[in-house]
Design a protein that fits this description.
The strands form four sheets. A five-stranded mixed beta sheet has the order 5-6-11-7-10. The chain contains 14 helices and eleven strands. It has 372 residues and is of the alpha+beta class. The relative contact order is 0.11. It has helices at 14-24, 33-40, 47-56, 68-71, 77-87, 89-114, 131-140, 156-168, 190-199, 213-222, 255-263, 281-284, 329-342, 363-371, and strands at 57-60, 63-66, 120-123, 145-148, 227-230, 244-248, 273-277, 298-299, 317-318, 321-323, 346-351. The chain is 40% helix and 12% strand. Helix 7 links the parallel strand 3 (120-123) and strand 4.
């Protein structure tokens, strides 16, 4: 409803508040929060709105405390929409983004004092999908080793529950530390592909190019073509990490708008994430660490802003997947081919699906989404 106030029921959270701001902007709650995060880069926080909300939410050693009565109006859509009319959508988005960043940084600083010997920070939950918040943790707290669980939302609860039960049963789960990539999903087999091709044979033409498809894909990307790839096991979590991906050349300044408007059919202000060779990391980024899951942003060196413009958001950040050969050999070789031709081991990587559909799961999904 327009006026339900979850704080009165004791379920207030930063995530819920951020979702109400998402809803007030006319976007889908629990789905489009990333659009709010992207839009925030185009605005500045409104000090009045920010300061009042911050007074209502205080990080403590016992957790984040909420003033239910004072905060209740911020769950009222009518009130929030009146604030949008007052300060504009961009500034409205920037205000809730700034609040999220600052409260979480303050909370982590509080925890850091309680646990001075701990050097690594592990994050999970839907709020940790906010990559700029994670960047703030990296830049503004003492933690330089940050890990965000790849399936950070509710889907990750299944994984955590299984691991806890395994521990309860005395199982050895030490093998998990050897897993770097969440390629836990299905694999599309050759017979399924052949069957799907038969279904669409009057609509598409097919050419078999062999096991070294990654060379052809890399050449096509270097030529500024948009390429869709499906191979290996599907990723577990919301990020496409090279196995169910639409990829493109970030040196093309127009490619981001083309993919947003014509391929994904989503707002043109949304950024795309790059897959980048690990060996390019220190060359391209100011400060970073080895990170493989597109869950944290880093700042790109200014000298490269006009070299790979479509991989960089308006705030100068990029949310990378740093790729090493043992992570995904074929995908690595594809990016390596791009580097041979363009000089940059970087590709734009977005999930292979039309906006609003799930990532392609079957061979039939793959061809249908490609055609559409």
């Amino acid at each position: 409803s327009k006026t339900d106030h979850p704080v009165s029921g004791g379920i207030a959270s930063l995530g819920y508040l951020y979702s109400r701001f998402t809803q007030a902007l006319g976007l889908r709650r629990y789905s489009d929060e990333g659009k709010v995060e992207a839009l925030a880069a185009f605005g500045k926080k409104d000090e009045t709105l920010y300061e009042h909300m911050h007074r209502c939410i205080q990080p403590t050693e016992e957790g984040i405390q909420y003033d239910a009565n004072a905060l209740s109006s911020y769950f009222d859509l009518s009130f929030l929409q009146s604030q949008i009319e007052r300060i504009g959508k961009e500034n409205f988005a920037a205000t809730i983004q700034a609040l999220l960043e600052d409260i979480v940084v303050e909370y982590i600083d509080t925890l850091a004092k309680q646990y001075p010997d701990i050097e690594a920070l592990c994050l999970s939950g839907g709020v940790s999908a906010n990559i700029i918040m994670s960047l703030n943790l990296y830049e503004r707290t003492r933690f330089k080793k940050i890990f965000v669980v790849p399936p950070m939302g509710d889907e990750g609860v299944a994984m955590g529950s299984a691991l806890l039960k395994a521990l309860d049963m005395g199982e050895d789960i030490s093998w998990i530390r050897d897993l770097q990539m969440p390629y836990f999903g299905n694999r599309i087999e050759k017979k399924e592909i052949e069957h799907a091709i038969e279904i669409f044979r009057e609509t598409i033409s097919v050419q078999y190019i062999g096991d070294e498809w990654y060379n052809e894909a890399g050449i096509s990307v270097a030529k500024k073509k948009i390429v869709a790839i499906v191979h290996g096991r599907m990723e577990f979590g919301p990020r496409a990490l090279g196995n169910r991906s639409i990829i493109a050349n970030p040196t093309d300044p127009d490619i981001k708008q083309t993919i947003n408007l014509k391929v994904k059919k989503r707002p043109e202000y949304q950024p795309f994430c790059p897959s980048i060779l690990e060996e390019e990391r220190k060359r391209l980024f100011k400060e970073s660490f080895k990170h493989k899951h597109m869950a944290i942003a880093f700042r790109v060196k200014e000298e490269f802003h006009d070299k790979i413009p479509s991989a960089i958001h308006i705030d100068g950040t990029a949310r990378p997947q740093f790729v090493e050969e043992f992570d995904n050999p074929a995908y690595y070789r594809m990016i390596k081919k791009v580097k041979e031709i363009t000089g940059f081991g970087v590709v734009i990587n977005t999930s292979f699906n039309l906006h609003g559909r799930t990532i392609v799961h079957t061979a039939e999904d793959t061809i249908r989404d490609f055609i559409d």
